[in-house]
Write a structure and sequence with these properties.
The complex is a heterodimer of chains A (543) and B (172). Chain A has 543 residues and is mainly α. Chain A contains 26 helices and no strands. Chain B has helices at 11-32, 43-65, 70-91, 94-117, 124-133, 142-170. Chain B: Residues 15-81 form the IBH1-like N-terminal domain.
C-alpha cells in the first residue's frame, strides 16, 4: 500500500512512534521518528493509537450508526500503518500478541483509513498542540512503554468515555460499539463544562456528559476528536485484564477535585503505564479548567499512543465491555471526597473545596439557628452571627448574675437544702400547676416584693423550667409561714450591699429583657406566687 | 413534662454532672467564706465570693462538658492560668507584677492583630467577636468555631438553668 503510505509518510512525523513493532521496517515509513520508535520496540500500539485518535473523529462524526464500520476502518487504518500499508491480516498476526483482535476489523479497507488517518492526524496534531510529532515520540521514551501497554488503549478509551460511564476499560472494550455510536454525535457537545465530575455508569445517555466532562468546557477539539476517536478504538481493543485495572485506576483518578493537581504533576513528570492514563483521565473528569489546558496537551499526546494501543486490541472485547458496563453500577472512588459541580459553576479544585467548606458552614449555622431562640426570622450569616453573639453574651451575663446571687445566698446554704436541690434539679417534675397560681399572695407579696422584683422574673423562669408540684395543702400552710420566711429573706436582702443589690435589680431586669424574652414577662406575676410556693415547700420540707 | 426538648448533647447528663460539681464547689466556697455570713458581708468580700462562685460555675461546667471540647479545655486552662498568675501577682511586688502584665498585654495586642488577619469569610468582624466570647475560640477556624459555639451555648443554657434553680431554692 504505497499509495496509502505516502500520505502516511507525510504525516509520519505524527506517527513517529513507530507503528510497526518488530517484524518489518517498511521503507515507506522511514522517517526519523519512525525508526527511532521502531527501535524501541512495540511502538505499534502507540502509533496506532495516535493514528486512530485523530482520524477517527471525522468518520465518527459522520454517522452515529456506523459505529462498527468506523471502528473497523480505524482498525484497518492501524493495521495498514503497522503493516507498511499492507492490509494483509497475516502481517498483523505476526505482530505482537494483540494482533488477534485485529483479524477481522483490520481486514477492513485500510487505504481509506489511512487517508482519513492522515487528515485526522494533521488535524489532531494541530489541534492538540502536538509538538513536533515526528521528533516528539522518540524524544519521549516514557511514551513508548505506555504505548506498549496493551491496556493503553483502554485507558485512552477510558477517559474518552470518561464522563459517559464508569470507567471500566473492560467495559469500554465491550461497549465499544456503543461508544462509537455515542461519541460521534457528541463531538459537538463536548463543550459543556457544567457536568458532573462523577462518571455515571450508564453508557449511552451519559456519554455526552462524559465527553463533555472530558472537555470541561474547554475547546479542545483535538482532545475531543481524540477522545471520540479513541473510544471506539479503545473499546475494541479492550484487554480485559488491563481494562479492569485501568478502570479501577481511572475511577480513582476520576473525581477527586484535590487530586487533580497531583494528577497533573504526575502527568508531567513521566507516564507510568497505568498512571499516566489515569492522570490524563482524571483531569477530564475533574473541574480544573485551568490545569485542563495543560492536561489536555499532554493528554493528547498520551491519547494518541493510547488510542493506538486501544485500537489494536479492541475488537474482541466490545461485547464484553457492553455487558460489563451495563452490569456494573458506577462506583465512586473511595479515596476522595465526592463533589458534584453544579451547572454553570466553576470546576476549579479550589472552588470545589470552597464550596464544600461553605456548605459545611451553612449546615452548622442552621444547627446554631435551632439553638438560639429568635433566630428563625433572621436570615443571612452576618445577622445570625450577631444574634448568636448576643445570645452568648446574655447567657454569660446571666451566669454572672446568678453567681452573684448565690454569693449572697451562700451563707444560707446547708446540706439539706443541697440534697433537696440536687434531687429537684436532677429529676424535673411535671409542668407547673397553673391552677395554683391564684393563690393569694398579697400578704406575702407585701413583705418582700421590692427586693424580689429583680429576682422574680428569674424565679419565674426557674419555676417554669423546674417542674415543681405544689400540693394544694401547701398553699394554706405556706401562706401562713410566708411571714416568717419573708422577713429573714428580706433581711438578707437588706444586708446585701446596696450597690450589689442595685446591680442585681438593674442587671436582672436587663437579663429579663434579653434572656427571658417575651414569653417570660407575663410570668412575673406568677413568679411571685411561685416564689412563695417554693419558699413554703422548702420550708416545709426542711423544717 | 420531662423536658422533651433535650438538645442533642444530652444535657441531662451534663446537667446532672454540672449540678453535682457545682454544688460541691458551692459548699466549699461556703466553708471558706467568713463564718459570720450575714453580718460581715462587705463589698470586697461579696465581690470575691461572687467571683469565686462564678469561677466555680464555669469550672464545673467545663468539667461536666468533658475535655473533649476545645472550649472546655480552654476554659479550664484559662482558669488555672489566671489563678496562677493571680497568685504570682499577689506574691510578688508591684513592679514585678506590672512587668508581667505588660508583656501579657503586648501578647494580647499581637493576638488581636493576628485574629483580624485570620478572619475567615462570612462575618469577619463577627467571627472575631465570637472568638472572644467562646473560650479557646481564637485558635479555631470558622467552622470549628461554629461547632464549639453550638456546644458552648448548650452548656451555658444548662448552667443557667441549674444555677437559677439553685438560687431559687436558696433564696427562699
Amino acid at each position: 500500500m504505497e499509495g496509502s503510505s505516502t500520505p502516511l509518510t507525510q504525516n509520519s512525523s505524527t506517527f513517529a512512534i513507530g507503528i510497526h513493532p518488530n517484524d518489518q521496517l517498511p521503507s515507506c515509513f522511514l522517517v526519523a521518528g519512525w525508526e527511532d520508535a521502531l527501535d524501541r520496540g512495540d511502538p505499534f500500539e502507540s502509533a496506532l493509537s495516535s493514528m486512530v485518535s485523530s482520524p477517527v473523529a471525522p468518520p465518527l462524526a459522520a454517522g452515529e450508526g456506523d459505529d462498527a464500520v468506523m471502528i473497523r476502518e480505524l482498525i484497518g487504518r492501524l493495521g495498514s500503518i503497522c503493516d507498511s500499508g499492507q492490509t494483509s491480516p497475516g502481517s498483523y498476526n505476526n505482530s505482537a500478541a494483540n494482533t488477534s483482535c485485529y483479524n477481522t476489523p483490520l481486514n477492513s479497507p485500510p487505504k481509506l483509513s489511512l487517508s482519513m488517518a492522515d487528515q485526522h492526524v494533521r488535524g489532531g496534531g494541530g489541534g492538540g498542540g502536538f509538538p513536533a510529532p515526528g521528533c516528539h515520540f522518540p524524544g519521549h521514551p516514557p511514551f513508548v512503554p505506555v504505548m506498549a501497554d496493551p491496556g493503553f488503549a483502554h485507558r485512552a478509551a477510558r477517559f474518552s468515555s470518561f464522563g459517559a460511564r464508569n470507567v471500566n476499560v473492560a467495559n469500554l472494550n465491550s461497549g465499544l460499539g456503543l461508544n462509537a455510536s455515542e461519541f460521534p454525535g457528541k463531538q459537538g457537545n463536548m463543550l459543556d463544562s457544567g457536568r458532573f465530575c462523577r462518571v455515571p455508569s450508564s453508557r449511552s445517555l451519559k456519554a455526552n456528559d462524559g465527553s463533555q466532562i472530558c472537555v470541561q468546557g474547554n475547546d479542545r477539539i483535538f482532545l475531543q476528536s481524540g477522545i471520540s476517536a479513541s473510544t471506539p478504538e479503545n473499546g475494541e481493543m479492550g484487554d480485559s485484564r488491563e481494562g479492569s485495572s485501568i478502570s479501577d485506576q481511572v475511577a480513582h483518578g476520576e473525581m477527586h477535585a484535590r487530586g487533580q493537581i497531583d494528577v497533573n504533576s504526575r502527568k508531567r513528570k513521566s507516564i507510568p503505564k497505568g498512571k499516566a492514563r489515569e492522570s490524563v483521565a482524571s483531569p477530564q473528569s475533574a473541574k480544573d479548567s485551568e490545569v485542563a489546558t495543560e492536561n489536555e496537551e499532554q493528554m493528547t499526546k498520551k491519547i494518541k499512543p493510547a488510542e493506538a494501543d486501544g485500537n489494536e486490541k479492541d475488537t474482541v472485547n466490545g461485547d464484553q465491555k457492553q455487558s460489563k458496563e451495563s452490569s456494573k453500577p458506577p462506583e465512586p472512588p473511595k479515596d476522595y471526597i465526592h463533589v458534584r459541580a453544579r451547572r454553570g459553576q466553576a470546576t476549579d479544585s479550589h472552588s470545589l473545596a470552597e464550596r464544600v467548606r461553605r456548605e459545611k458552614i451553612s449546615q452548622k449555622m442552621k444547627a446554631l439557628q435551632d439553638l438560639v431562640p429568635g433566630c428563625n426570622k433572621v436570615t443571612g450569616k452576618a445577622m445570625m452571627l450577631d444574634e448568636i453573639i448576643n445570645y452568648v453574651q446574655s447567657l454569660q451575663r446571666q451566669v454572672e448574675f446568678l453567681s452573684m446571687k448565690m454569693a449572697t445566698l451562700n451563707p444560707r446554704m446547708d446540706f439539706n437544702l443541697e440534697a433537696f436541690l440536687s434531687k429537684d434539679i436532677l429529676h424535673p417534675r411535671g409542668p407547673l400547676p397553673d391552677s395554683l397560681y391564684p393563690v393569694d399572695s398579697s400578704g406575702s407579696m407585701s413583705y418582700g416584693y421590692e427586693p424580689r422584683q429583680g429576682l422574680m422574673p428569674m424565679l419565674s423562669v426557674v419555676s417554669s423550667n423546674m417542674d415543681t408540684q405544689f400540693p394544694a395543702d401547701l398553699l394554706n400552710s405556706g401562706i401562713h409561714r410566708n411571714a416568717s420566711l419573708n422577713l429573714p429573706v428580706m433581711d438578707n436582702y437588706g444586708e446585701a450591699p446596696a450597690p450589689g443589690q442595685a446591680l442585681w435589680e438593674d442587671d436582672l431586669q436587663s437579663v429579663v429583657q434579653m434572656g427571658l424574652g417575651q414569653n417570660e414577662s407575663h410570668r412575673i406575676e406568677q413568679g411571685t406566687r411561685i416564689y412563695e410556693f417554693d419558699a413554703d415547700r422548702a420550708f416545709i420540707y426542711h423544717n | 413534662m420531662k423536658n422533651p426538648q433535650r438538645s442533642p448533647t444530652n444535657p441531662g447528663s451534663v446537667r446532672s454532672r454540672f449540678t453535682q460539681v457545682f454544688l460541691q464547689s458551692l459548699l466549699r466556697i461556703r466553708k471558706h467564706s467568713p463564718a459570720s455570713s450575714s453580718s460581715s458581708s462587705s463589698l470586697g468580700e461579696f465581690l470575691k465570693r461572687c467571683h469565686r462562685v462564678k469561677v466555680a460555675a464555669y469550672v464545673s461546667m467545663a468539667r461536666a462538658a468533658g475535655t473533649r471540647r476545645a472550649w472546655s479545655r480552654a476554659m479550664l486552662w484559662r482558669v488555672r492560668h489566671d489563678a496562677h498568675r493571680h497568685r504570682l501577682l499577689q506574691g510578688r511586688c508591684s513592679r514585678s507584677s506590672s512587668r508581667e502584665r505588660s508583656p501579657g498585654k503586648k501578647k494580647r495586642r499581637t493576638k488581636k492583630k493576628k485574629k483580624r488577619r485570620d478572619d475567615q469569610e462570612h462575618g469577619f468582624g463577627n467571627a472575631e467577636k465570637l472568638q472572644k466570647l467562646v473560650p479557646g475560640g481564637e485558635a479555631m477556624d470558622f467552622s470549628c468555631l461554629l461547632d464549639e459555639t453550638a456546644h458552648y451555648i448548650k452548656c451555658l443554657v444548662t448552667q443557667v438553668k441549674v444555677m437559677r434553680s439553685i438560687a431559687d431554692f436558696y433564696s427562699l
